[in-house]
Specification:
2 domains; single chain; rod-shaped; mainly alpha; 3 helices
Length: 85
Amino acid sequence: VADKVANLLLKPVLKHFEERLSVLEAKIDDSERYNRMFCIRLLGISEDATEDTTLKVVSVINNNLDMSITTNRSKNLRSFLKFSY
């Protein structure tokens, strides 16, 4: 009898937590999607785990686009790229 009562009491609690979990997962997905919204992906460029990606991006931009940037702008590189597509 105690097990039946416990299960009866737990069902709404578990349902509430499952609904909350679904809401939180959706918020995380939205947040991750927003964070990627202003990112660019450079395909076809070899990548080394030890290389300086800022130098690599600056080099690709300077060599392939009609732009000229330097690494001293690296702290602004994120916002620069965000508005340059």
